[in-house]
Each structure stands twice: as structure tokens, then as C-alpha cells.
Amino acid sequence: MPAFTPPPLPSDDKRWKIVNGTMRKNGFARHALIETLHTAQSAFGFLDDDAIRFVAKSLRVPLSQAYGVVTFYHYFSLKPPGKHTMTICTGTACYIKGTDKLVAAAEKRLGIPQGQTTKDGKISLMTARCVGACGRAPVVLTDGELQGQMIGEHMIEQLERWAVE
Q1: Could you report the per-residue pLDDT of 31-82, keeping only the tens digit for each?
Q2: How far apart are CA 85 and CA 103, in angstroms?
Q3: 109 exposed, middle or buried (CB, 10 Å; 0-12, 13-18, 19+)?
Q4: DSSP string across the chain
């Protein structure tokens, strides 16, 4: 049986070399699917059709399996993120402290449901099941920075600042 030859990189973009490195480190084994998809998303910000197809072909997994993983796990995104991201924790402690109201206020202010990005591409509104900072509930991540004991006014002020940038 001839040795496996991985497909050529989709482009000269250096980020593909990072993705390829993850697969090479794992011997282009099928078990590296999730790790490789994480690497691709970290490199490109989201997973487009070309990235998913390249990873599936390189790891010799069915395309349906690769798409199944991408659509099953909440971490993966098929759309590019906004310039800024607000992630509201909806874990039990945060929910008890009112994050349902924070989510509703952010959706109303932005005119989008959670999980979406504004039409101008400036702001993505996300939720997370738990960010592990229950003692500081309710918690919001603004561009990855934890903001504890969030109140609606401060959250809306942040959204306003981002909207006018």
C-alpha cells in the first residue's frame, strides 16, 4: 500500500501552514479532526467550506463527519466574527442574576438575535453556557475580557462605544 500523500495547501496563505502543522504533528490521523478544526478556526477566525473540505480530505474523514463536528460543537463558527464580540454567560448563577434580561437588552439594542453579527460586521452577540466565574455573576465577556457583576446600563454603553467606532 502506498504512503498517504496529503493534498496541497489551498493557497499560499501562511495560516494554512499552521493548520498543516497540526495535522502533520498528529500523523494526519483521523483522531486529529477536532484539534485541526480548532487550529483552522484560530488561524482564520471561522471555518469556511474550503477549510472544512481541506481538513476532511487531509485527514481522510468523510466530509459529512467534518461538517457534523463543526455544526455539533458550539465553539465552531461557519461565519466570520464581528470586529468586536460580546459573550453573555447564561450559566445557572448568571441566569439567576439576570442574564436573560441582559441578552434581551443586547438583542434589542443590536437588532439581532444571539449567535449573530450585526449587518455592518462590527459586533457579534454570543452566549456561553458557563464561563467559570460564577462568583462574579452576571458575567459578560467583551472581546474576551471578563466583566463581572454586569448591569444592563454598562453593557449597553459598551455596545454603543463599539457601534460608533
Answers
A1: 999 999 999 999 998 999 999 999 999 999 999 999 999 999 878 999 899 9
A2: 13
A3: middle
A4: -PPP-PPPPSSS-HHHHHHHHHHHHTTT-GGGHHHHHHHHHHHHSS--HHHHHHHHHHHT--HHHHHHHHHHSTT--SSPPPSEEEEEE-SHHHHHTTHHHHHHHHHHHHTS-TTEE-TTSSEEEEEES--S-GGG-S-EEETTEEE-S--HHHHHHHHHHHHH-
pTM to 2 decimals?
0.73
Q: How confident is the model at residue 2 (pLDDT cuts 50, 70, 90)?
A: low
Alpha-carbon Rg for the chain, nearest whole angstrom, is 19
Sequence-distant (≥ 6) Cβ neighbours of residue 13 within 8 angstroms: none
